[in-house]
Amino acid sequence: xxxxxxxxxxxxxxxxxxxxxxxxxxxxxxxxxxxxxxxxxxxxxxxxxxxxxxxxxxxxxxxxxxxxxxxxxxxxxxxxxxxxxxxxxxxxxxxxxxxxxxxxxxxxxxxxxxxxxxxxxxxxxxxxxxxxxxxxxxxxxxxxxxxxxxxxxxxxxxxxxxxxxxxxxxxxxxxxxxxxxxxxxxxxxxxxxxxxxxxxxxxxxxxxxxxxxxxxxxxxxxxxxxxxxxxxxxxxxxxxxxxxxxxxxxxxxxxxxxxxxxxxxxxxxxxxxxxxxxxxxxxxxxxxxxxxxxxxxxxxxxxxxxxxxxxxxxxxxxxxxxxxxxxxxxxxxxxxxxxxxxxxxxxxxxxxxxxxxxxxxxxxxxxxxxxxxxxxxxxxxxxxxxxxxxxxxxxxxxxxxxxxxxxxxxxxxxxxxxxxxxxxxxxxxxxxxxxxxxxxxxxxxxxxxxxxxxxxxxxxxxxxxxxxxxxxxxxxxxxxxxxxxxxxxxxxxxxxxxxxx
Amino acid sequence: xxxxxxxxxxxxxxxxxxxxxxxxxxxxxxxxxxxxxxxxxxxxxxxxxxxxxxxxxxxxxxxxxxxxxxxxxxxxxxxxxxxxxxxxxxxxxxxxxxxxxxxxxxxxxxxxxxxxxxxxxxxxxxxxxxxxxxxxxxxxxxxxxxxxxxxxxxxxxxxxxxxxxxxxxxxxxxxxxxxxxxxxxxxxxxxxxxxxxxxxxxxxxxxxxxxxxxxxxxxxxxxxxxxxxxxxxxxxxxxxxxxxxxxxxxxxxxxxxxxxxxxxxxxxxxxxxxxxxxxxxxxxxxxxxxxxxxxxxxxxxxxxxxxxxxxxxxxxxxxxxxxxxxxxxxxxxxxxxxxxxxxxxxxxxxxxxxxxxxxxxxxxxxxxxxxxxxxxxxxxxxxxxxxxxxxxxxxxxxxxxxxxxxxxxxxxxxxxxxxxxxxxxxxxxxxxxxxxxxxxxxxxxxxxxxxxxxxxxxxxxxxxxxxxxxxxxxxxxxxxxxxxxxxxxxxxxxxxxxxxxxx
Lengths: 501, 503
Hints:
The structure holds two protein chains of two kinds.
Chain A: H1 4-10, E1 11-22, H2 62-74, E2 78-79, E3 82-83, E4 85-89, E5 99-103, E6 109-118, H3 120-123, E7 139-152, E8 156-160, E9 172-176, E10 183-189, H4 196-213, E11 225-235, E12 245-250, H5 253-272, E13 280-285, E14 290-296, E15 306-307, E16 314-315, H6 318-327, H7 332-343, H8 347-354, H9 357-369, H10 374-383, H11 393-404, H12 410-420, H13 427-433, H14 442-455, H15 457-464, H16 471-481, H17 488-500
Parallel strand pairs in A: 12-13
Antiparallel strand pairs in A: 1-10, 1-11, 2-6, 3-16, 4-5, 4-15, 6-7, 7-10, 8-9, 11-12, 13-14
Helix pairs in contact in A: 2-6, 4-5, 7-8, 8-10, 9-10, 9-11, 10-11, 11-12, 14-16, 14-17, 16-17
Chain B: E1 2-3, H1 9-18, H2 23-41, E2 44-47, H3 49-64, E3 76-80, H4 107-114, E4 118-123, H5 157-164, E5 170-175, H6 181-187, E6 190-193, E7 213-218, H7 221-232, E8 262-265, H8 267-270, H9 277-292, E9 296-299, H10 308-323, H11 342-353, H12 356-368, H13 374-396, E10 401-405, H14 420-425, H15 428-436, E11 440-447, E12 454-460, H16 466-482, E13 501-502
Parallel strand pairs in B: 3-4, 3-5, 8-9, 8-10
Antiparallel strand pairs in B: 1-13, 2-4, 5-7, 6-7, 6-11, 10-12, 11-12
């Protein structure tokens, strides 16, 4: 198979995503009072409603409706004043009523969009000339969202005795209805994504948005956020869509990217060899880095959708929508822009911190404790904190202040973090106790500089002949001579002053 | 000596409250009446003697402790077998649920118990309420107490027959297209379908969710009003999101004069070819009786009523297909043994668990909801629904209630109607009421001149004006009594003295 970059020069990929997100932060299920849980004993959080017992009736979870409206507002959707629940029929025991309660043509949220900033290496997947790029190669991709609708999740099934956990050939099938009826929102994009990187970024941005809203724990690994990717390709310059395939079993951002990459290259190979792409569902195998056919869709399934007569049409009042709007917190993009504007952070650092509500909360706490060293706090957050386990915000503030004062080097900072990580220790004290604080006393350092210049005659000559890089060696000698207590920046400054004189 | 069957619910509750007799004695009298009559009537699928006696004992203990008793204290009540009551099976008269034990109690049942009623058992019905004669019960037929060679009507045939035979004083039924009003008519008792949303559907096995409504049977309008009070007490049921908060006192002003009120009649309907002469005569007698009470009769129209049956047989089966999809033998109900695959188990459990009418309706619904078919039938049916609702709104601008037959004929003989579409047509006068969702009540107006079987007039009122509707029903009852055509409170003659003596 050819490489993605080559393929995308000749072919345009058309990608759409369907993203299911469980509203894990709610306390109860979509249509009953059963507790939401991920790891309770099987079939302990069940009742007549979610078990589909005869005579039971659904009562919608108001908080779930609030969550989906907030999701719609955060993704620039139009909130529909009137929408309905529908019944989607299929006979399978994971759906206890043999129909899923979902929404019909009109969802709570319609016609939104998210704008993606594609930068760096990822931006190179999109061939030049197919999009307006900035000088640094980055570009903005506006991605339309068709709809976000509300539905209920199915039960978990485990098939024993068959091959690879499938029902075919299984001797027993176990059903755990704990998950049945979990509130689920499904977001469907328009087919506006053009590269695997854009798809990955979209998912990442959506996850950051939902995390910030606090409506889900958004775990791809545990399946509380699930993504199906639809992809087709067409010759550059043509308008007609190709036949699409649907990718399942995507449980990481990397899987999403790699599955799409593989599938685009596979489809290109099939078409270039004169073959046909079949409309089918394919399963991503991460270990073998390939997709395999799950099932071929010959006919569209007939779900016999119709409005659920047990649930009255939803009329969302303006007041309700406005109450939800008031509850939407500052979203990652706005937060990023504020960090850049208020603290002068680098845009990429600001975006990384703003993207995760826990990280940004931590950052703001540390920034508040070290108001003179906010940029350093951000630097520490981006470069050092990810490797630690249990740092406290004030420890980061304290350490950042030391760095900002040039009292320690970045390498020392790493060392200090290792010591204080998981403890209540103050970095300032650790630095003092270990004598790590670097001297910024110019007089004391000057003596060392003079001593080093006196004995490194060769290097001094080289510098004066134009090899300015040799100053690094001289700084090293100064550090050695001061046994690490001198500030390297100051040594550098003093050395240059002497050498240029 | 008074027998249970000669007493009204109010009279029984008063006797229990005053200590004239105990709730236990009443329960025993009801069990004796059931013992004496069931052989001929077969209204019950299950008699819950233990539950009844335990419940009656609690009522007596509460009285002994000086507690206030409910308005239905000690009144023997039966429930249609699609209503859950913990301690009983709820079979829906189907092999599918032959051994299904209720895991919770329906709101409507609980509210009757909360009012002090004694639960005597579960009554026979058409399987899953699909039918108009109770003949589609998977277990046995129920005989009309007025003539055991005739059907009791349906689908709540058992509930109507149990009250008509004096086995219980009040019963509950459910009405999707006439399933309370038509058997009430056939069995000569009062049967009410309240406005959709007035009574909770929680715990009633669904047939057509947008059409189903629970309501009471009694031998007089006052008993029905008493039961209605119990059913709406507590207001909106938080477990049924389609239920509404309406809780008028249906007894208050029940006997007030109706002078000057207007009742609409639909002349075109009375010309319907299937309408028998005796039913036409009965309606004429009802009109005269109402006029005698000072009611003004006006002519109104429901121009789209002719489309009601067609719309009903789209909406009803579509909802039924969907509601009955859960019966797959996996979690409960009949499970076909020795199947090799899930698909085989699902298919055979349903093939052998459901009777033919239940299968017919579900297959019809599966067809009607299919892609390409849905647009042709379901949408027009909903449009008809809007038009009929509009027709009623227009008609009620000119009158307080509309009077029409409850059924085109009196109860027919077993086997007389075998063509399903002919059976469906017998719901002609009741269906539009479910389509529009407003209330209706069937009131006995005497015996037919041809068959000697009970004839009823049906009164329909505007949505959520069921209280006024019952007032008109009461006026009709009084007028009919004055005309000596029917005495309210009476049971079918053959069962009048059968057991159930009370001191």
